[in-house]
Amino acid sequence: MNLHEKTLTKKTLYAGRILALELQEVELPDGRRAPRELIRHAPAVGVLARRPDGVFIFVRQFRKAVERVMLEIVAGICEPGEAPAATAARELREETGYTAATLVELGSAFATPGYVDEQFTLFFAELNPVTGATEHDEDERVETVALTRAAFERMLVAGEVADAKTLAAWLLFEKKLGG
Questions:
Q1: Is 65 in the same domain as 125?
Q2: Which residues touch 30 (CB under 8 Å, ≥6 apart)?
Q3: Which letter does DSSP use for residue 116 in this model?
Q4: Could you say which of 88, 124, 145, 156 is the most buried, measured as most Cβ atoms within 10 Å of its Cβ?
Q5: Distance, C-alpha 107 to centroid of its chain
Q6: Confidence of residue 134 (pLDDT cuts 50, 70, 90)
């Protein structure tokens, strides 16, 4: 079965600091035409981090799009030309003050591929024991949260973790590294 859609036209409706909105007209396999509204987003990373004592480090921040405070892994957008591992190390230091003793790539995932091309490269970091100062963006309010495995898993079961990159990173960590 042919599932491919042929792009006929593209028009950028908005281009901002971190994303662009694009309207496309596509041709479906049966010849019909359809519109597609797409968000173009820079590549990003997410980092599931663990201290030497076995405690995991997360961040909590308000997310305006969903009007709620979310518990998440450390994450951020790759700067132009920046390798995902470099972004992961930078974001970890900026958001939590921790540095990675080791950084293992777990895999990647698309945030919401129905209309966004944002792809996260996910990492697991074993942290160095000493923390430094955080370097949050001027408009960023981030709280560092330390959780034991048991506490995080209780939150998972209770439905208190709703961030897709965090859920994907935990699953990949469990399946690839055995936790």
A1: yes
A2: none
A3: B
A4: 88
A5: 12
A6: confident
Token readout for 153 is 């898993």
Q: Rounded CA gap, 120 and 109, in Å?
A: 5
Domain that holds residue 87: 43-177
Residue 150 phi, psi dihedral angles, 5° rounding: -60, -40
CATH code of the domain covering residue 102 = 3.90.79.10
Sign of the Cα torsion 66, 67, 70, 74 reads positive
Q: pLDDT tens digits for 12-71?
A: 999 998 999 999 999 999 999 999 999 999 999 999 999 999 999 999 999 999 999 999
Task: Report whether 86 contacts 100 (CB < 8 A).
Answer: no
Evaluate whether residue 1 is within a structural domain. no
Cα of 67 vs its chain's centroid, Å: 18
Just list the catalytic residues.
138
Do residues 21 and 41 make contact, with C-beta atoms less than 8 angstroms apart? no
- What does pTM read for this prediction? 0.93
- Among residues 76, 74, 53, 63, the alpha carbon closest in space to that of 129 is found at 53
